[in-house]
Structures are given as C-alpha cells and as structure tokens.
C-alpha cells in the first residue's frame, strides 16, 4: 500500500490501492491515476518506465539527485524536476527537498528522494480544490506546483524578516560581533541556494502555460498563471534580498574600518601628547648645564612647559576631532 489515487469524471473514486494495480487502471482512458514513489530503486523506476512508456533519459534524470528545476517534453509524456524549500531560523540555512514527476495523458507519478518533500501537503491542496478534479492531470500538476512555489515564497518571506533584524545592527552602537557576521554569511549562502532553485522555475512554469493540450479547455490556465506570478515574485524578492544582504555585509566592513580608523586616530593623538613630556624630560636629563640647572627654577620651568605643551596639543587634537 502506498500513496495512490484514482479519479474518474472529476470524482475521487479510490485511494491507497496497491501500486501493482496502477498499470491496469491507467489503461482506462476515463481514469486519472496518481501514485507516489519515495526513494525508489533503479529497478522500480525501470518497471514503471515499461508500463507507462517513459523515456530512458527521463528515468535517468529521476535517479540523479542534483538535477536543476526543469520541464522536459517528450512525445508521450513530460518530465518535471522541482525542489521544495524550508528556512531554518536558528541556523539561517535553507533546506531543500528534491522531487520529480512523470506527467502522462492520464497519470501523474511523483518521485521523492525523502519524506522532507511533504506529499501530504500536496494531497491536502488537492482535497481543498476538489471541484477542479475534472481537469485531470492538469489539476494534479497544479497542486504539486502550488505547494512547491508556496514553499519558495514562505522561505524568502522568512529570510526577509531575518534580513530586517540584520539591518538594525548596521548603525548600532555596539560593534558587529561574530554571531551577526555568521548570520549574514548563512543568509547570503541560503539566498544563493534559493536562487538556484527558484530562477529555473520561471522557464518550467512558462512552458506549462504554453502547453495547450495540458490545459484542456483553458479553465486551468488562470491557475497556472497564478503560480507563474508567484514564481516571479519569489524570484524578484530573492534577487533583492541577495543585493540587500551584500550591502549589509559591505556596510558592516565599512563601519568596522571607520571604527578602526577612529581608534587609531585617538591612540596616535594620545601618543603624541605623551611624546612631548618625554621629549622635555629627556632634554632636561642631559649631562650638561642648561638654564635653571641645579636650581628649583629649572624643575618648575620644565613642569610648566610639559603642562602647557600637552594642553595645547590636546586642544588642537580635539578641535580636529582626533580625540
């Protein structure tokens, strides 16, 4: 028993039946069948390949774990590769879950690498939109894409909140610590990962929109168009966040450089002030007679000279904002 469903005339007729019965049900042109395979073996995929007439290249792509999101069109079916995404707020990392799908005239076969790709969430969307089930495979495919694109949108939305928190650290009173630097790096790394799976979705969904045979009477076209709009929004949002995180990182480095320059300026100014008394006491420490040598007047003269010179340098440095 596995994830299986049979629709007929827009009505859910059966579910949870053995995958072995799928081949018989697919032969009925009035039936629409979906079944799911989680972490299948090469033998499992070759078995369904013979029953559904799948292209060898599509089966090979389904076995590979690092396919880019795409839609390949063959004579008898289409092959779809997608990734669901989720954001971990604690670590700042983006987790992705790959899935592929074989799309035939009256069957949808989903292939997942693990349970991280929530097929239960896809089924829930099908149940909520059961009134569209009469559109067959287009209805099933829309639910799958809707889940995937919504996961992208929710991920970039969660990352946007993290970026807003980082913006507050840019001009804060305290220096940027290692934790903020790590978060900035992880967010940028996560946005790169998200961009890699979001950008190609535009081409895949756009290809589906141009497939008139899949949309049937055109009633599903607005639904696929809505998914396409969500893809565009997620793509643009991801791009803008990447730029913003880069700007935050550059601003962090600039602020650190400015703080370092200010510290060096102050240290240098104090060193100059201290150098003057050192120079005067060193001069008076010569082993030759000088004005006031051997008298208390010489000590007081050097003391007054140290105080006056130091005060003068302090006022000059303060006037130039070096202290």
Automatic annotation (TrEMBL):
Its main location: membrane. It comes from the Bacteria. One of its GO terms (molecular function) is magnesium ion transmembrane transporter activity. It is a multi-pass membrane protein. The keyword Metal-binding does not apply. The keyword Hydrolase does not apply. GO terms for cellular component: plasma membrane. The chain crosses the membrane at residues 267-285, 297-317. Signal peptide: none annotated. Keywords: Cell membrane, Membrane, Transmembrane, Transmembrane helix, Transport. It is found in: Cell membrane. Belongs to the CorA metal ion transporter (MIT) (TC 1.A.35) family. This is Magnesium transporter. It comes from Microbispora rosea.
């Amino acid at each position: 028993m596995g994830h299986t469903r049979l629709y007929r005339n827009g009505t859910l007729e059966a579910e949870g039946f053995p995958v072995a019965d799928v081949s018989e049900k697919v032969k009925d042109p009035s039936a629409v069948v979906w079944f799911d395979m989680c972490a299948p073996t090469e033998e499992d995929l070759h078995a369904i390949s013979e029953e559904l007439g799948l292209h060898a290249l599509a089966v090979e792509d389904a076995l590979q774990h690092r396919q880019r999101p795409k839609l390949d069109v063959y004579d008898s079916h289409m092959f779809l590769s997608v990734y669901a995404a989720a954001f971990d707020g604690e670590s700042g990392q983006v987790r992705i879950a790959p899935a592929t799908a074989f799309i035939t005239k009256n069957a949808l076969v989903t292939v997942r690498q693990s349970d991280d790709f929530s097929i239960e969430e896809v089924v829930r969307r099908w149940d909520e939109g059961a009134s569209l089930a009469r559109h067959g495979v287009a209805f099933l495919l829309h639910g799958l894409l809707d889940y995937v694109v919504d996961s992208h949108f929710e991920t970039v939305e969660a990352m946007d909140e993290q970026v807003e928190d980082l913006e507050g650290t840019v001009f804060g009173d305290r220096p940027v610590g290692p934790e903020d630097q790590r978060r900035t790096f992880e967010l940028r790394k996560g946005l790169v990962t998200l961009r890699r799976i979001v950008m190609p979705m535009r081409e895949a969904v756009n290809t589906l929109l141009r497939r008139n045979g899949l949309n049937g009477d055109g009633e599903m076209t607005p639904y696929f168009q809505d998914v396409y709009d969500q893809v565009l929004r997620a793509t643009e949002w991801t791009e803008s966040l990447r730029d913003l995180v880069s700007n935050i990182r550059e601003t962090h480095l600039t602020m650190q450089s400015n703080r370092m320059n200010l510290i060096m300026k102050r240290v240098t100014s104090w060193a100059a002030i201290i150098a003057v008394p050192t120079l005067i006491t060193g001069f008076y420490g010569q082993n030759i007679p000088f004005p006031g040598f051997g008298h208390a007047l010489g000590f007081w003269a050097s003391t007054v000279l140290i105080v006056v010179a130091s005060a003068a340098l302090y006022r000059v440095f303060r006037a130039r904002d070096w202290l």
